[in-house]
């Protein structure tokens, strides 16, 4: 798992004591205080989904644990969680709690290790291996033109990572920014670092990456935005709209127009009302402002 960007346990609390279950609980989603393992002391790794009942589950009221089932305290963990509807497996969402499946083991047992697997995790949950692989991929996609500032822009938020075996073949990230529009300061999910390895394009990886980020943005932000130099048709087909009004940035010296970015900013309207012919002002940052 280390080669796939899953961070190893950081302290002794992450290592089960003798006799406890070693079922992996990984992910940025909040874990319940305890889970009940039914039927077996340890779930079988060749099962498509674990037999896990949560006290937060809708099924927990109708389904009672077997007599003698053990209750196990889940240790604090961090790490990526597979997207629920990715094609490499099917998982079920129970009351907002995603059943934790060991997708790599499942795929290996089925002889499908080279199938694409989409992982989503915060920057803080990625280890050095995953970050190195991401930087290498983006350097290749942008042909060495990715500056340190622009690499920094892709960090600090949620990453969608497309793996094939031990190879990272696609990446996109969603970071929080503030934009000013119509007298309001809006919380924006800003898309950065979108890229798919050249020999893996045309397979739907870009759509899978963007789909993951769009679902996250829909639940957390007033709008989503990005700037692109030549992929406008791809984003437009997904419902993103070209911003037709003037763009500007809130710099240390005040609001400054950014005419060079007019016609390159795309916005996905979420909960906030927007006038696409009005002015849109982003917060200040080093490197590319938009």
Q: List SSEs in N-to-C order.
A: EEEEHEHHEEEHEHEEEEE
CATH class (first level) name of the largest domain: Alpha Beta
Architecture per CATH nomenclature, i.e. the level-2 architecture of the largest domain = 3-Layer(aba) Sandwich
Principal-axes shape call? globular
The domain count comes to 2
CATH topology of the largest domain: Aminopeptidase
Helical content, roughly? Answer: 10-25%
Q: Overall pLDDT, averaged?
A: 75
- What structural class do helix, strand and pairing data support? alpha+beta
Flag low-confidence runs.
Answer: 1-66, 69-107
Percent of sequence in beta strands: 25-35%
The total of beta strands comes to 14
Which superfamily, in CATH terms, is the homologous superfamily of the largest domain? Answer: Gcn5-related N-acetyltransferase (GNAT)
- The oligomeric state is single chain
Describe the structure.
There is one protein chain. The chain is an alpha+beta fold and 290 residues long. The chain has 2 domains: 1-77 and 86-113, no CATH class; 114-290, Aminopeptidase (3-Layer(aba) Sandwich), CATH 3.40.630.30. It is 17% helix and 28% strand. The chain is built from 5 helices and 14 strands. The strands form 2 sheets. Strands 4, 5, 6, 7, 8, 9, 10, 11, 12, 13 and 14 form an 11-stranded mixed sheet that branches. A 3-stranded antiparallel sheet has the order 2-1-3, with no helix packed on it. The longest helix has 16 residues, at 205-220. Residues 1-66 and 69-107 have low confidence and may be disordered.
């Amino acid at each position: 798992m280390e080669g796939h960007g899953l961070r190893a346990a950081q302290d002794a609390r992450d290592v089960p004591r003798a006799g406890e279950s070693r079922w992996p609980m990984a992910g940025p989603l909040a874990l319940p205080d305890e889970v009940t393992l039914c039927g077996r002391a340890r779930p079988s790794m060749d099962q498509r989904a674990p037999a896990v009942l949560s006290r937060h589950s809708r099924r927990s009221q109708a389904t009672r644990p077997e007599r003698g089932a053990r209750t196990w305290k889940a240790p604090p963990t961090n790490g990526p969680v597979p997207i629920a509807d990715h094609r490499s497996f099917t998982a079920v969402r129970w009351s907002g709690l995603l059943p934790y499946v060991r997708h790599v083991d499942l795929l290996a047992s089925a002889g499908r290790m080279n199938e694409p697997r989409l992982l989503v995790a915060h920057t803080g949950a990625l280890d050095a291996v995953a970050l190195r692989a991401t930087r290498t991929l983006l350097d290749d996609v942008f042909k060495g033109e990715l500056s340190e500032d622009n690499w920094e822009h892709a960090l600090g938020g949620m990453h969608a990572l497309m793996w094939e075996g031990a190879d990272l073949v696609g990446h996109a990230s969603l970071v929080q920014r503030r934009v000013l529009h119509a007298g309001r300061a809006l919380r924006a999910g800003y898309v950065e670092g979108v890229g798919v390895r050249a020999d893996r394009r045309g397979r739907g990886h870009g759509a899978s990456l963007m789909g993951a980020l769009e679902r996250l943005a829909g639940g957390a932000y007033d709008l989503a935005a990005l700037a692109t130099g030549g992929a406008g048709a791809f984003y437009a087909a997904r419902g993103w709209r070209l911003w037709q009004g003037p763009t500007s940035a809130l710099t240390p010296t005040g609001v400054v127009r950014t005419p060079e970015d007019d016609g390159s900013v795309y916005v996905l309207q979420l909960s906030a009302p927007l006038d696409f012919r009005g002015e849109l002002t982003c917060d200040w940052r080093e490197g590319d402002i938009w």
